[in-house]
Specification:
The structure is a single chain. The protein has helices spanning 3-9, 45-57, 67-90, 97-110, 115-124, 129-150, 158-170, 193-211, 216-223, 245-252, 305-320, 326-333, 356-363, 394-424, and strands at 34-38, 41-44, 177-186, 234-239, 259-264, 268-278, 286-297, 345-349, 374-376, 379-392, 427-430, 438-439. It has 441 residues and is α+β, with helices and mostly antiparallel strands. The strands form 3 sheets. A 4-stranded antiparallel β-sheet has the order 2-1-11-12. Strands 4-3-6-5 form a 4-stranded antiparallel β-sheet, with helices on both faces. A hairpin with a 3-residue loop joins β5 and β6. α3 (67-90) packs across α6 and α4 (97-110) crosses α6 (129-150).
């Protein structure tokens, strides 16, 4: 994830406490102005201004609307983020400091920076490192919350996966990747005929303006109600059949630069712009399989780590000296009921199916070689690599790809519906704008 894109999409560390109407103090204090109330929480003007400055600092000015329009979009984003953070707190979802540090390290690496260089970059953009950590933490909390809530709404049948995998195999040149930008004009739940008419007219007007050459990114930042609004609507490269099904047929035939829409869905009207597209050539996918044997000694109160390791060293010495064979030793000593009777044979398998410590030791072995005693989460092992081979996993890979495509498509669709429901069930008050007072509780 590039830094310039990341700073637009990250969340602010929001003030989630209750509003305190009176300050009982002899010294005067500055009371921060409230921009919005979301259930029992508040969004402060400082939160809005901080994000406004971040977006302006990391965006091309020609893609941004006036400050008033941009502020409205940012406030809408912060309302949604606040609701999601409330949901995370209620579900007791947490992100550890180590998780945040690891994520920041990955971001720095992807941008060709060290952590110190990232700190310096943030400083030039007027952002403290601690504020940046808060944003990363909130973003991770929100992503976990969305995944936990939405994935339970997704059902994928074997037939769906099989059908798409078959399509991918039979028509590989039609599995086109597309770089697409998106505008969503949302319609609230139980919308009135007037609300639907207004949204329809607004969507048609945006399509007309886009087709006449108006800056699509600026239109998206000004009007879109989805997660990509502050990125100018740009969703990046996506596989066409990974996008919502209502987009697929239209995008597969659309040339570069095409404006598509408005397309009606359950959450509103969609407008698309094709920034670029590309076809994928057919390819064969191979993977390594290994055939291994092992001897497992489990630890307990009597069989300590040291004793288990010593016992395996003695068994290894007996095997390498020719006093016994690996298979015979496994039948005698191994405590793995699934393989002991077969001389420790684990059969052919992908290395990733094994415990990480077991896998790492196994992949370092040469054919026929026996490892030193290795500790895994199951106990202590001697491992022998019997053989390895490259196998054609094209069909399995296509099935895995089909599942991933279907999941991502349904996740996108269900996320939009779920967030609409979340907003519909919340008390949302935008200060100074009574028309946006949503009190459905």
């Amino acid at each position: 994830m590039k830094l310039s894109k990341l700073l637009i999409t990250l969340n602010l560390s929001l003030s989630l406490g209750l509003v305190t109407p009176f300050v009982l103090s002899a010294a005067p204090r500055v009371v921060e102005q409230v921009a919005a109330i979301v259930n029992n929480n508040v969004i402060l003007e400082n939160d809005v201004n901080d994000m406004l400055n971040s977006v302006k600092a990391s965006s091309d000015p020609k893609n941004l609307p006036d400050d008033k329009t941009l502020r409205r979009q940012i406030l809408d984003r912060l309302v949604i983020e606040n609701l999601l953070l409330q949901k995370a707190a209620k579900a007791k979802i947490t992100v550890t400091d180590d998780d945040v540090t690891q994520a920041i390290g990955q971001i720095a690496t992807e941008n060709g920076m060290t952590i110190d260089e990232l700190r310096a970059k943030l400083s030039t953009m007027g952002m403290s490192y601690n504020s940046y950590r808060d944003r990363i933490q909130n973003d991770m909390l929100i992503e976990q919350t969305k995944m936990n809530e939405v994935r339970h709404r997704i059902n994928i049948s074997d037939k769906e996966v099989d059908n798409l995998a078959k399509t991918i195999a039979q028509q590989p040149t039609k599995n086109i990747d597309v770089n697409v930008s998106h505008i969503l004009i949302a319609i609230p739940e139980n919308a009135s005929p007037k609300q639907i008419e207004d949204a329809t007219n607004k969507a048609r007007d945006i399509v007309d303006r886009a087709q006449k050459g108006e800056n699509f990114a600026k239109l998206a930042t000004s009007y879109s109600n989805d997660d990509f609004a502050l990125k100018g609507g740009n969703m990046g490269w996506r596989r066409i059949n990974e996008l919502p099904t209502i987009f697929e047929d239209k995008l597969i035939r659309a040339p570069k630069g095409a404006i598509i829409g408005p397309i009606r869905s359950g959450v509103g009207f969609h407008i698309l712009k094709v920034n670029d597209n590309r076809a994928e050539a057919p390819k064969t996918i191979t993977a390594q399989e290994v055939k291994a044997r092992h001897i497992l000694i489990k630890t307990n109160v009597l069989m300590t780590d040291d004793k288990a390791k010593q016992k395996l060293n003695e068994i290894r010495q007996a095997i390498t000296s020719g006093a016994t064979t690996f298979e015979s030793a496994a039948r005698t000593y191994s405590e793995d009921p699934g393989s002991a009777d077969n001389g420790g044979d684990l059969g052919w398998s992908m290395p990733d199916r094994y415990d990480p410590a077991f896998k790492n030791a196994l992949l370092k072995l040469k054919k026929g070689e026996i490892s030193q005693p290795i500790k895994s989460s199951f106990g202590w092992h001697l491992i022998q690599l019997v053989d390895s081979r490259q196998v054609d996993r094209t069909n399995l890979a296509k099935r895995e790809q089909a599942y991933r495509i279907i999941f991502n498509r349904k996740f996108t669709e269900e996320s939009q519906v779920w967030i609409q429901e979340l907003k519909g069930d919340a008390y949302i008050k935008i200060m100074g704008d009574d028309s946006n007072d949503n009190n459905s509780k």
